[in-house]
Amino acid sequence: MNDVNGTSRSAIASEKQTEVAVLAGGCFWGVEEILRDVPGVIDTEVGYTGGWLENPKYDDTHHSKSGHAEAIRITFDPAVLSYEDLLEKWFFKLHDPTTLNRQGYDVGTQYRSAIFPLTPEQNVTAERVRARVDTSGKWKRPITTTIEPASTWYSAEDYHQDYLRKNPGGYSCHYMRD
Question: What's this model's pTM, rounded to 2 decimal places?
Answer without folding.
Answer: 0.89
